[in-house]
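Practice problem: F-box domain-containing protein
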Amino acid sequence: MQPVHFTTIPFELVLQILSFLACDDILSFFATCRSYRQLMSNESVWHELCGRFGVHDLAPFRLHDPNRTFKTVYTELLHAYGPLLGIWASNYPFVGNVIEFRVVAKEQNAGWEGIVGEVWHFPRDVGDSMSAPSAPDYHEFLRIELLSSVDSGTNGRLTRFLWKWHNTDEDGLPTTGTMLANPSDNPLILNGPNEHQFYVFDSREPDSVSMHPEFPPLHLRADTPSHPRVKFRDMKSFTVHMATPQALPTGLLYVAPASSFVSAEPETMPAIVPHSLHLNLPPDSAESALIQSLLSPPYLQDFLGALGMVGFGFGDGASPPSSSLYSGRYFPLKLPTPSRAAERSDHPDRGVPPRELTGLWLGFYETHGTEVLSLHYVEESGEIQAWKVTGDVHVPRGVVSWKFDTRLETRASDLLPNVLASLRADDITGQTPMQFYSGVGTLSTAGYIPSVREEDPLVAAIVNRNEIRIKWSVDDLALTYRRYPGRDVLTENVISEGIRRPTVAF
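Answer key — structure tokens:
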């Protein structure tokens, strides 16, 4: 039997094989096989590569350049910046922050094509009667614009970066957006892994320091097959100059190598901090300050007020050490794939399977408003854990806000009447089936140091796979936590230039 030469394989089968390879491997394959070299200009190959980032239709990309091809869209935009797409969260101390990158394709009124970066903003109108979270508004802060061949000029580049900030009226509400061309060739920097962590001095025990909660938690660390092709910074060499300070004022937060001298137990010591993204804002400009204000995590003033001056050697300057205010490093979040099994369950009376609760959620906290959480199911212990993706000066990001054991269900008849009434506030008759569990939550005064934090008993009620209510012992009302529903960009309202809001109430 004669061996089959690779060139005799049908083209359709070759495409199937290539779909399992990275782009660099595909190009290497074409380069080593003369018979297939002509496929480098075949649109089917580039169509498949674009499809990996959700781009299946060229029509939206041809609004300003009718000659665009899948090859152009991939090689000029998606190859370098496609790995940005998705939700990222920062390790900004205490409060954290969330940004999102998505392809601008089907919004014909946008006036441009490319990738947009948006920061999540939640309303701050916290009232005593509120107990449910709000959906975020999405504020544009960065454009990676795909230019037409005419607009690109003579330098041959078909992409450009534009920073954006939002003007406000006398009431502080956003009005119009303003664009700023990026003066640098490196608006985004990819930080390499490193072993540095945040520490905070205990003002009650001046000689004591505590490791600040690591971020992101292990279950949220994305196993990304590729990273954005932007300037790389070796953080190991960048942070080698950062020695632990010998004398610091109390209440000071700083960065140092993770080591055994801190109060953390060995089993809780952090893993290496993975790759992260740094937003390299335009230097020394009033516009940069406005963009930084837009990107500042919610409740930044609360944070500064609680801890005073925040200066440490993990700044954004090119030559360490720097004492600039830390702007946070962003990490891609590993999110579970939504399951459709629970949506079409034939046995709703059996309750919600615990693993169906995993994913991004939004929760309301009486002092700080809406915060972002990640619900994680621990198979071995049966625990549902609500990890804070964003936090506050009392309970920071990277901490388990609350948890309960799904193997120990509590009967409604065993709950105190006021607790049951609070959990069933809109269903006094008890017609809606709920699952009740006892659990614990994390409480702390400002600073989250060991001497000021404690666990608080609570009761959790699973209403459905998209809603959980928590009755903390310290609260009169049950607080509502809801699954983040994702986005339907085409139905969102543009409330101001570059600011979008979901149409459907959360």
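Discussion: Residues 193 and 274 are 5 Å apart (CA to CA). Students who identified this feature from the tokens alone can consider the problem solved.
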